[in-house]
Amino acid sequence: MNATNRSEQVEPTAEVDSNIDAVSEVEEGIREFVRNYIAYLRRPQVASAETAPHGVPAETSESAVNNVNSLIQRVAGTSLAEIEKLISELESLRDLLHAEGQRVQREISGYAQLSHAAMKSTRMIADNVNQWKRAADGLRNS
């Protein structure tokens, strides 16, 4: 029974190794593509208009560059769309915060005016109570 378990454990490892080999082949293919078709963009232009560096026809190089450019645009397009969406969300949040800040300022101003009016009323009431108290004391003493 242990021998069966060991053989089952060996098989997934073989599958993982073959997957790693396949990934390595794809990566090597990408590196080769970049070396053959894109690296010449960093070098000065070839005098001959019919061929590109490494003996690759100009039409093939141009189509490869166009393919890479379209791939970059698709990948960047998705990222740019997300960034623009985030920017618009942030702008709407900024507008909301600005509006809420103004509302809070209006409310605080209203409360300050209400507090000032309450203090005036309280002073008037206290002054009237003092006058009544003095009048009552004057009546008692007389």
Write the layout of secondary structure elements.
Blueprint: H1 2-38, H2 58-141
Describe the overall structure.
The protein is mainly alpha-helical and 142 residues long. Helix content is 85%, strand content 0%. The chain contains two helices and no strands. The longest helix has 84 residues, at 58-141. Residues 1-10 and 46-52 have low confidence and may be disordered.
Quick structural gist:
The protein has 142 residues and is mainly alpha-helical. The chain has 2 helices and no strands.
The overall pLDDT, averaged over residues, is 77
User: What is the number of helical segments per DSSP (H or I, 4+ residues)?
Assistant: 2
Catalogue the unreliable spans: 1-10, 46-52
The counted number of beta strands is: 0
Name the helicity range: over 70%
How large a portion of the residues is in β-strands, by DSSP E? Answer: under 5%
- Overall morphology: rod-shaped
The class by helix and strand makeup works out as mainly alpha
CA distance, first residue to last residue: 120 Å
Computed Rg: 41 Å
**Main sheet: strands, sense, barrel:** none
Strand and helix order:
HH
List keywords for this structure.
142 residues; mainly alpha; 2 helices; rod-shaped; disordered N terminus
